[in-house]
Amino acid sequence: MMIAKWRYVWWPLAVVNWCRGILRNRLFELGVWKSVEFEIPVVFVGSLVNEPAVSISRYIQRLLKGALHVDRYKISNYQLEKEKQKLTLYHWPLNATHTFCTTHRVLGLSEWFQCNPDTPAFILDGEFAQNEIRPQFRLLISDYNRPFINDAIFPVGNLQEGKTGAKQADAVLIYNSPQNEGRVKLERSLLPYLKKETPVFFISNSFDALNSFNSPEEIEFIADRPNFERLILNILPNANPDSE
Predict the structure, then answer these.
(1) For the domain with range 5-67+120-243, which CATH number is right: 3.40.50, 3.90.640, 2.70.98, 2.60.40?
(2) Fewer CB within a 10 Å sphere, N or C end of the chain?
(3) Contact partners, residue 173, CB within 8 Å, separation at least 6
(4) Domain chopping of the chain, boundaries
(5) What φ, ψ does residue 162 adopt, rounded to 5°?
(6) For the segment 138-172, what is each residue's pLDDT rounded down to a tens digit?
(7) pTM of the model
(8) Residue 17 in contact with residue 154, Cβ under 8 Å?
């Protein structure tokens, strides 16, 4: 998909946004901006264009049984409701005896883990860029019809971070994918932007399906579904999916 020509007038601002992203990542790498690593695995499920995929992150939650799923919606009695207070980004389920911080991710997750030390992992939906939490695994999601390699930094395009940010991905999942040879061509085009041997998976689900709250079992992998599950399960300490 081509970028509209009129949007190129915003290139100066796009360059500023690109520089801000590079500087942000560098400050986290140097430790100028502090980040926290938890005792349990943290999984980021997100994209460079800020497209949350609830079904994918909930599918991973199912694989990592007992994992806490964190997203940008209010959770009340495990029923998802749209958040009315936009300044509050994250919420956790409330139980009968404890409440958890909803305005600071590190504090909220720390409080949760203190009360629920058997939680095997945290799954953060809609996260990918470096921030105050250091994940053990990053899953990058992209649209087959408009992959991040064909997009540009905002406001020229839709990328919230430069294409070089894809180097942080531990795996890539392409949605809205047809079952044809175009998948192989796209995968080859992605490789220069990824770490060496980063696996790429394809599913046929559309963007609308990924952002609905359908059963994660309805995710339709075109190939390598067992390999995707094995990859996720291996982030758990002492996991050995091959023995099952």
Answers:
(1) 3.40.50
(2) C
(3) 56, 139, 140, 141, 142, 200, 201, 202, 203, 228
(4) 5-67+120-243
(5) -60, 160
(6) 999 999 999 999 988 887 878 888 898 899 999 99
(7) 0.84
(8) yes
Question: Distance from first CA to last CA of the chain, Å, rounded?
Answer: 43
Residue 50 backbone zone (phi > 0: left; psi -120 to 50: alpha; other: beta): left
3-state DSSP of the chain: CCCCHHHHHHHHHHHHHHHHHHHHHHHHHHCCCCCECCCCCEEEEECCCCCCCHHHHHHHHHHCCCCEEECCCEEECCEEECCCCCCCCCCCCCCCCCCCCCCCHHHHHHHHHHHCCCCCCEEEECCCCCCCECCCEEEEEEECCCCHHHCCECCCCCECCCHHHHHHCCEEEEECCCCCCHHHHHHHHHHHHCCCCCCEEEECCCHHHHCCCCCHHHCCECCCHHHHHHHHHCCCCCCCHHHC
How many other β-carbons are positioned within 10 Å of the β-carbon of residue 141? 26
Instruction: Look up tokens 């100028």; give the residue.
Output: 32
pLDDT in tens, 34-68: 889 999 999 999 999 877 677 888 899 889 988 88
